[in-house]
Amino acid sequence: MKVFPEKFLWGGAIAANQAEGAWNVDGKGVAITDVTANGIAKNIHDQKVESGKFYPSHEAIDFYHRYSEDLEYMAELGLRCFRTSISWTRIYPTGEEEKPNEAGLKFYDELFNKMLSLGIQPVITISHYETPLNLYHKYNGWESKKLIPLFEKYCRTIFERFGNKVKYWMTFNEMNNVHTIPYAAAGMDLSGDYAHQLLQVYQATHNMYVANALANRLAKEIMPDAHMGIMLSLSQAAVYPASPNPKDVWGTLQLQRRTFVSADVQLKGEYPGYVKRIWRDYKIQPDITDDELKLIKKYTSEYLAFSYYRSSTFENGMKIYGDTGGVVGKPNPYLKDSAWGWPIDPLGLRWMCNLVQDRYGCPMFIVENGLGAADTVDSDGKIHDQERSDYLIEHLKALGEAIKDGCDVIGYTWWGPIDIVSAGTGEMKKRYGFVYVDRDNKGNGSLKRIKKDSFNIYKKIIASNGESLFES
User: Fold this and answer.
1) Which residues constitute the catalytic centre (predicted)?
2) Among the CATH numbers 3.40.640.10, 1.10.443.10, 3.20.20.80, 3.30.300.30, which is that of 9-469?
């Protein structure tokens, strides 16, 4: 029995703000991530680009100028798809221009043309932690409904321009992270007491649900053959009770629902009762109109894309916080941690796939999964990253088991197949790639690319359509 579907989308994933660099080139405006020097996980950022300050993402790995070379590596790997994002501020520098920036559109035309020439399908996130900084300053980002028509205009522009090249789209990256990293996920800061912060979170996510529905409506109009999905962090939902204490179990479910709500609304088309109870309990009511609810109901999304890096544990009463990898919980004595303290849990990926299948019955796309490690070039000039190869193999075996369980998985894109700037910490030292980039945390290095040992491991897996994973 063959495990992975014949047309399974083997791929890799990056984000524009972590790879492209060229932060102010060819008319690009300033995005929220352009003013974060140490990553986005702590919601710490400047109000503007400070002169003389080092921002790792400003040059990143210079993918903007080197994408052709980098995509050749991806083709050598055998990738069938490549996920990246369109930088909103390359198209609309402040988010409010009447006409788009042609230089930005031209860049993505050339990028997608290169992918297609290599037989690689573009998989595109429309907004991946790249809200225009201007919209943060003027409206506190997605807390305001002012962003909805601006996002719709942006979507219309890119759908009309790239709709004949891109078939797989996701609107927002890890929207459920608005709870934990609101600046990155929604371009906003939280203020006031806990009830007011909850109101801000639910208002922002509602506005994004409306924008998602409008994007789905536009897609049906402009590119009816396209596939429109949502993207969530399921590391936020992969939470185990810390004990059999019923309060731990119940609290774990409540924590998981912070993720499920985004899928419930955008895949099922309506708000679940548990959210309405939260609003009643905290005496809050987001500004939601009947017309918006009808729009959300009519224009649901087709598939659930998600990131999965790790699982966590929850104990009743503990303070909940998270980062780009998911919720940070109590240590799990049954799991080994990575060098950055992230539990390694392949079975958790199988669990999440089955949970999605049981709850939504829709196609799913694992668009982020990977291991950050401090790789070094050995005396032989090579990078021997056995830990990454082991992580890849074990997670893909778990994914294969999920497919055998009956889960409708359409693809898998490793994060990121080439070293990029870490979103959570702003480091280059925390490396994920199968291709090494000579760049350090202070911006030093030649940017030379070197294939790691894991490169050939993934290449072999793809060439066999995953069958090599199950050879005895």
Assistant:
1) 368 (nucleophile)
2) 3.20.20.80
